[in-house]
Amino acid sequence: MRADPEHWLRVTPRGLYCPVGDFYVDPTRAVDRAVITHGHADHARRGHGAVLATRETLAIMDARLGSVQGAQPLDPGETVSLGGVTVSLHPAGHVLGSAQARLEYRGARVVVSGDFKRRTDPTCAPFEVVPCDVFVTEATFALPVFRHPDPATEMAKVLDSLALFPGRTLLLGAYSLGKAQRLIALARAAGYDAPIYVHGAVAKICALYERHGVALGDLHPVPEGNNRLAGSLVVHPPGTLGEDGPHRFADPLVAMASGWLRVRGQGWGRRADVELPLIISDHADWDELVATLADVGAPRIWITHGREDALVRQATLMGLEAKALSLIGRDEGKEDAP
Amino acid sequence: MKAFAALVDRLSTTPGREAKLILIGAYLDRAPDPDRGWGLAVLAGDLDIPRLKAAAAKALILDRVDRELFALSHAYVGDLAETVALLWPKPPVLPKPPTLSDVVEAARLLPREELMDRLTGWLDGLDATGRWALLKLLTGGIRVGASARLARAAFARWAALEGAAVEAVWFSRKPPYPALFTWASGGEAPDVENQIALRPFMLASPLEDLERARLDLAEYAVDWTGDGIRAQLVSSGGDTRIFSREGEDITRGFPDLVAALDFEGTLDGDLRLLTPEGTPAPFAALEKRLTRETVSKAMLATLPAHARLHDVLFDGGEDLRPLPFRVRRARLEAWHGASPRPHLDLSPLVGVADWETLDRLRAEGGTDGLRLKRWESPYVGGPTGDWILAKRPPLSINCLLMYAQRPARGGARPPTEVTVGVWKGADLVPLGKTIPDLTEDEGKRLTQWILDHGRERFGPVRAVDPELVMEITFESVQASPRHRAGLSLRLPRIRQIHWDMPAKNADRLETLIGLM
Ligand SMILES: [Zn+2]
Ligand SMILES: [Zn+2]
Fold this sequence. Notes:
By secondary structure, chain A is of the alpha/beta class.
């Protein structure tokens, strides 16, 4: 008889827990054994006793959190048994090394998506459709108004602005892990081959991506002091330039990439200080979420972080059974910006 | 339509004037004719097409999207047209997107039902930004993030033409302005004789910027500035326009005044509304005329528009601007005296023999201040120093600091905004907010004071002990039921902080009521 996942997977204050295998997926606090889907701060925290993750994710955790105790790399598709639960990792298409966790116990299959997207992204392996009985999905952009445009057309706005405003520095704010590298790769794909200036934490992760075979072209650190850099593209994590930061550059043109920028005038949305909003996200948009529900063929949908009301409605319209898991502590991490 | 939508989208997030000029120039470079002309017309506020109700778009989307998902989306987005634009499903086959000309021509010519049919196909063919701009354009809610005057300046810059020359011919042209684009590409300038044109306003320099000792009051004509807004009234060949100081065409709001303008030429005056008692109505009423789509009969009857004229630029086709004010004033008086008209009068001249009289008059006067015009000066656009504005000195009261807003990134820096109040009985009532503009030392001292006297926090706002007296200057005080004090101050500013003044010495609300 199949074991209902309700009995071997549950929500605890520390996150999603599997009592049979005695491990957590992306726990929000330090635990004995954790399966980590990807390196963003709200999924990968420090201090676990043992960590099961992809090699890339372990490398990212190493670079950002310091050396990881009890690291156990798992290659995509490879399986491991934790107390009778078969665990495997499958690409999620979110950032370098990001994975969905597939858990199988007594014939029942659960896939925990972590964060994912379906768009092509030259900086990470594409999302793999993993058939399952329960699909545990993120829901960051689970409202039908969130439909991200083609990232290439968004990047074209950056290149167009660089051409129109040769006297200004284009300051592109992007989270240091994933978004920054994807934006650089998009600029390169669009034929931009001038040096790109990268700031602080971005530089470190870019180097890590390069070591994992992701070519990002000619990158320079942002020079100290008043360097102007008129006509150049600077990629930096938001908030890291400091109060006077922008004044160090030539009449800075502030750009920012986020899926939230799709909706004008929302609190999270268009920010007054952003002159060039780019709707580019590493999270699935509404159409991708809906397509994925259909693709994985799971009759049951559990919804983790994000807003669940619309996705529950959509799943119901599709004849699926859906419920919200209400995980605590997700999306508080500053770095995992959508 | 896509290029236009992208421009409007981009302008809405672009604060800098220079950047806006460049963006509009790039649009004019890239968009084909006649699309760019129509695009320019939207920016310049010259496009007049019938409106669709936003509710019509809602009906279309409910045929395509689950009602509950629509409701959740609308609640999140807020704006109906934007919600529809974002929700619109991608059709199996993408039709060709419409051009801006397609949209404008259809909107002007087609009956409503046919337009709605077209609308579906257009929405199918556009992306979310295009759909948003389209729906905003057709429902009349488009905000372009550029003033009409900026749009004209952008055209002039792009065409490498003199800004004033463009302003002079603009209003005699109809969108999509073929003659202007011919001119821009090196063709002949459009003819402006006897046609509607906006002329550059002559502007007054503040008296405070000038040295009184060098001025001889006897060389100046003096009159009161109006309580309303400065306007240029232009009439030619049966067409009449009213332009604001900002260069906006505000004719639509003043049909009563337009009907009264039976002259050929260009006049300069102060525009206001009059109460039945013949006194100027509050500014808020005038603002309604400026912003409403249509002006109701009731508005026209209760508060008629009135222009107090103080200069003449053209008499028919004759350019009077090079003539001295002395001559222009005489021409104005002769013309008006020949047949006085309703809705119009002449600004009376005020006798001012010396500076003491001037200072006394402007302090007592009911309007913004006194305007001095040199009798011998020609009418020239911009500030030349020949016109002087002697503003009424600001009023002042002693208030108590009530709340302080801390700067966005925290730290030991002065507040970005403070709320001040006055006594009403034993209570304090807030009067309003002002941005402190202090010296570095004062700023530091205030920051420390707030730290020492802070009470509860409301987000970034902190209440403080009601103990610090701030002297606040303001231009005027007006009734305002929205405020707890029942009144509000215009342009409140901190003049100085009275560190040692006891709190009970702060002013009372009654003092302000007396100033209304
Ligand atoms: Zn996340
Ligand atoms: Zn993430």
